[in-house]
Amino acid sequence: MSKREVRVRFAPSPTGPLHIGGVRTALYNYLFARQHNGKFLLRIEDTDQKRFVEGAEEYINKSLAWLGMDIDEGVAEGGEYGPYKQSERMDKYAAYATQLVQDGYAYYAFDTPEELNEMRAKLEANNMSAKYDATSRMSMRNSLTLSEDEVKERLDRGDNYIIRIKLPRNEEIRFEDHIRGWIVFNSSQLDDKVLLKEDGLPTYHLANIVDDHLMNISHVIRGEEWLPSAPLHVMLYRYLGWEDTMPQFAHLPLLLKPDGKGKLSKRDGDRLGFPVFPLEWKSPEGEISTGYRESGYMPEAVINMLAMLGWHPSDNQEIFNIKELIAAFSLERVSKSGAKFDMDKAKWYNHQFLMRVSTEDLRKMVDAQIEPKHLAKGEEYLETVLEMLKEKVSFASEILPMAQYFFENPASYDEKVQKKKWNAEVASHITAYIDGLVSRELTTASAMEEYLSTYAEEAGINKGSLMQPLRWAVSGQAGGPPIFEMLSLLGLPEIQNRLALVQAKA
Predict the structure, then answer these.
(1) Which pLDDT band, with edges at 50, 70 and 90, does 391 fall under?
(2) Which of 11, 37, 181, 450 is a plausible cystine mate for 43, CB 3.0–4.6 Å?
(3) Catalytic one among 62, 92, 266, 392?
(4) Four-residue CA torsion sign, 107, 108, 112, 113
């Protein structure tokens, strides 16, 4: 690591909701910055005004806030390198584009759409790549083929033009990537990308280079979809005289569909029933897409899950809090290959963090579901139920629907258990066992368990043959929390009531 201050940026475009792939990019930037006592910037790249979506910028900020990724510099936070919204930095881009033209590293292109289409058709007809490059540009209408007077005349007249970078012919472009090692491109593989559009707005290529330089960004950590553009960016740094301060690059692997075939998309989430956005999103057309927050995921679980999608620690640890992630994270342990999204694993992570939630916080998480019946026996009883059942669920919202029998008589009974496990003999043994608990005043879970062993031995039966039908008689279900803890919490009078009820129905 160089002695240069670590400054990284997450630079989304406000063209819609923040995808979890983008969240992962933000997270890796955040972890890297925090590990190196650096700065984490949020820059809004809103130069694509045609695709701008109202509310998207606010959504990005809310998403990062929910996930606990605090921003050091940004639109709302301010900072000495602002403004942090590209639409407020327009004066900077045109100046650098013009500088590139003057230095011979870019040129004005006056080609019409018809001329461009004709050029592409000719190249394709000759089995050549249809791109505007070192070869084709010399047959086009630009400041490389027109005289200085013609160019000046067109500019003075206000003709439409764009500014393209002038890439060299057949030159090797090399740069080192933190994840992928040395990357080598030949300039003949590239085209002369547009830097400044007809409307005066910069393309991503120019704006991002200018902003990264002016904001003193030390590391560019972004998705691998930008890897083909990286040599162009290297050339821009060189042309602008900024090569010595060029950021170090790290191109992250793709977040893949569950089957590993292609990039994870919203459509995959809709089709398979899992969220791909951190928060609920309502599109301008009124379409609502659920988010991880609304689906019951804890932010800590989402962070842990995303961190492990493309990065692996030096040991077998799977559960990390944010401090542990910051300490353990390194770009060198980020994989080159894509990471498959696993819906079941995402639920597993949420379960793991749910198990670690305090009783007080768990109570708050289900607050919206609380009805008068849940409080009939007091807060302590409710909290005990929540703690007892949280190990059985992936989401806090699943507890109370599962816990119905703790608050009222079972609404239904598992028919399979009744057919296989319940009969007159079993009912007689369970009645005798419960009567024994009452007569001996055995109310704790340990005492109830010990007495069942004693009763079964004296009756000459296997105690296991009574446990599931006993659970069924009391709860109506085949499974659940530890049976003796359940019985102890319900209490002997309620157990007797439930037993009488099921005997009357059976």
Answers:
(1) very high
(2) 11
(3) 266
(4) positive
Beta strands 7-10 and 39-42 are parallel
Beta pairing partners, 235:
none
Q: In whole angstroms, how far apart are CA 23 and each of 83, 362, 406?
A: 23, 26, 40
Q: What is the largest CA-CA distance in the chain?
A: 112
Active site residue 266: yes
Q: Is the peptide bond before 284 cis (omega within 30 degrees of 0)?
A: no
Distance (Å, rounded) from C-alpha 338 to C-alpha 325? 20
pLDDT for 56: 95
3-state SS assignment for residue 303: helix
Other CB atoms closer than 10 Å to residue 76's CB: what's the count?
12
**Partners of 248 in the β-ladder:** 219
Enter the tokens of residue 231: 């040599």
Phi and psi torsions of 31, nearest 5°: -60, -45
Confidence (pTM): 0.92
Token reading at 335: 């994989």
**Residue 443 has what pLDDT?**
97
Cα–Cα dist 371/147, whole Å: 81
The string of DSSP letters for 64-96 reads HHHTT---SBBTTTB-TT---BGGG-HHHHHHH
In the DSSP assignment, the letter for residue 51 is G
The rounded distance, in Å, linking the Cα atoms of 184 and 176 is: 9
Angle, helix 492-505 to helix 464-475, in steps of 10 degrees: 90
